[in-house]
């Protein structure tokens, strides 16, 4: 690929132009993100170089994760208690698969980003304390994901740009619908500011937190630029600590003390109809995004297939799985504008389904305000109890059909 040698003045001008179009007005000087070009390699000098996904494997699993109830070692707990979660936007285009990091997330959200193509938001805290943990490919934010991220008590929010005003230079008018303005919403939340908790390569985050790796899926597979951004979780936590976004909040309380947890019980008496095979589409006739969850009694988890194939984690090589799969029916709006932005209403109330332990049941959900926690209840109004382990929350348009047996 050709080499481009931009002067600092030109780079600053390009960044300033972007901020103006996004409606965000602070000055930034991001660290450069090096490229790993096809056929080349790079050495990263940050944590993770000598570790492995097995460094805590021999330690007893005695510590309960507050996000999903899974058990981890004392070493892992000692690390997460010094930090706050990292919520990362991860794309799901067919050319971007397999992704890195999804098997390490405590919770994963999935919803359509645009054109029937879904996107993930992984919540990384307890399960991602390995010093080699990375996430990829990191992509742009959407308003509904921001609204969900807001219930995590000012987390680290990692992404590459997002829906914004998209101002037309001739008319000076925004070309996108306000419901798509994720970047402006991050500013309203107070996250998008110099040295803030909004970790966006288009603002003030660069290497070693994120870099582009054109060989992410192997030197023999050509990748478009949008499929190449890789985020380092250890480097992100290190940067967050420098910025004052570790475990302690401004008032001196811990991050966890202000976070609302769900209920978990490994001995919970799971009720409902048999549901060992769960299948659904986000949009009709988008077969590459058809999801199928198959219950595996041996692991007591649902194994994930998408587009008719097992969906795996590139780095751990394992098939993605979930102890609990939540179908959250939401109101769908869009395309909203010429950019084909979509909007899903995640604040309010609605219906859904819960699958765990090989059974399925009807549930309701409620999120009272943007920063409020989404609470799931059974038909009697009692809060559901999750089996410990990774939780997937699938945001489906209200009219979507889910089949299970």
From TrEMBL:
Residues 81-173, 284-393 form the DUF3048 domain. This is PT repeat-containing protein. InterPro entries: DUF3048_C (IPR035328), DUF3048_N (IPR021416), YerB-like_sf (IPR023158). Transmembrane segments: none annotated. It comes from the Bacteria. Pfam families: DUF3048 (PF11258), DUF3048_C (PF17479).
């Amino acid at each position: 690929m050709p080499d481009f040698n931009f002067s600092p003045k030109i780079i600053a001008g390009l960044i300033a132009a972007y901020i103006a179009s996004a409606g965000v007005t602070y000055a930034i000087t991001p660290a450069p993100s090096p490229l790993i070009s096809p056929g080349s390699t790079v050495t990263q000098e940050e944590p993770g170089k000598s570790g492995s996904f097995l460094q805590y494997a021999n330690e007893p699993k005695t510590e309960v994760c507050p996000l999903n109830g899974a058990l981890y070692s004392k070493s892992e707990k000692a690390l997460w208690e010094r930090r706050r979660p990292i919520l990362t936007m991860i794309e799901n285009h067919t050319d971007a698969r397999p992704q890195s990091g999804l098997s390490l997330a405590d919770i994963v959200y999935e919803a359509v980003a645009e054109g029937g193509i879904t996107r993930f938001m992984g919540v990384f805290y307890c399960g991602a304390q390995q010093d080699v943990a990375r996430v990829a490919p990191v992509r742009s934010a959407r308003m509904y994901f921001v609204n969900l991220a807001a219930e995590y008590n000012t987390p680290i929010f990692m992404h590459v740009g997002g829906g914004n005003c998209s101002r037309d230079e001739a008319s000076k008018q925004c070309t996108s619908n306000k419901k798509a303005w994720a970047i402006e919403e991050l500013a309203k939340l107070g996250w998008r500011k110099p040295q803030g908790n909004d970790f966006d390569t288009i603002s003030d985050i660069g290497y070693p937190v994120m870099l582009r790796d054109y060989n992410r899926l192997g030197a023999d597979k050509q990748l478009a630029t949008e499929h190449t951004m890789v985020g380092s979780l250890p480097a992100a936590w290190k940067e967050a600590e420098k910025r004052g976004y570790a475990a302690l909040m401004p008032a001196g309380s811990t991050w966890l003390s202000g976070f609302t947890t769900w209920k978990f019980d490994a001995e919970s008496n799971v009720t409902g109809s048999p549901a060992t095979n769960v299948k659904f589409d986000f949009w009709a006739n988008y077969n590459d995004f058809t999801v199928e969850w198959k219950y595996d009694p041996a692991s007591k988890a649902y194994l994930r297939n998408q587009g008719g194939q097992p969906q795996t984690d590139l780095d751990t090589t394992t098939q993605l799985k979930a102890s609990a799969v939540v179908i959250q029916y939401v109101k769908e709006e869009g395309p909203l504008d010429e950019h084909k932005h979509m909007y899903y209403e995640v604040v309010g109330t609605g219906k859904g389904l819960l699958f765990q332990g090989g059974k399925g049941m009807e549930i309701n959900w409620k999120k009272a305000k943007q920063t409020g926690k989404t609470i799931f209840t059974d038909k009697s109004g009692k809060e559901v109890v999750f089996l410990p382990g990774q939780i997937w929350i699938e945001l489906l348009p209200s009219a979507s059909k889910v089949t299970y047996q």
